[in-house]
Structures are given as C-alpha cells and as structure tokens.
Design goal:
86 residues, mainly alpha, 98% helix, 1 helix
C-alpha cells in the first residue's frame, strides 16, 4: 500500500509539472516577444540614426564640393589677373 500512495502522489506531481511546463512556455513566449519588440525598436532607431548620418554626410559632401568649386574659381581669377598684368 505504501507504494501505491507514492505513485498517486507522483501522478499529482506530474500534473503539477505539466502546469509548470505550460507556465514556463508562456513565460518564454512573453520573454521572446519582449526581445523581438526590443530588437525591432533598436533596428528602427538604428535606421533613423543611419538616415540622419546619411543626410549629414551628403550635406558635408555638398559643402566640400562647393568649397572646391569656389577655390577653383579663385585660382582661375588669379591666373587671369597674372596674364592681364603682362
């Protein structure tokens, strides 16, 4: 009789184990959702930062091109002035 009691208790423990297993699965799914959401948010923020960097780089490049163009114009003016002196 003693063995039957243990088996009965074990069966109850088995059901408790199933409930714990389901609970753990739910917790894992919730945690997975959290990480997925966090990852998506980080990805979006990263894309925004990259977009801003891209715009900043374009603006810097445009400014550099303008400066080069202005320098070339000044050099041409200097050359013309030199030739006009002769």
């Amino acid at each position: 009789m003693h063995e039957e009691e243990e088996e009965g208790g074990g069966g109850g423990g088995g059901r408790g184990g199933e409930e714990r297993g389901e609970e753990m699965e739910r917790e894992e799914k919730e945690e997975q959702k959290k990480y997925t959401t966090d990852w998506e948010q980080e990805k979006e923020e990263g894309e925004e930062r990259d977009g801003k960097r891209g715009k900043e780089e374009e603006e810097e490049q445009e400014e550099e091109e303008e400066e080069k163009y202005e320098q070339e114009e000044e050099e041409e003016k200097k050359k013309k002035n030199i030739f006009q002196q002769f």
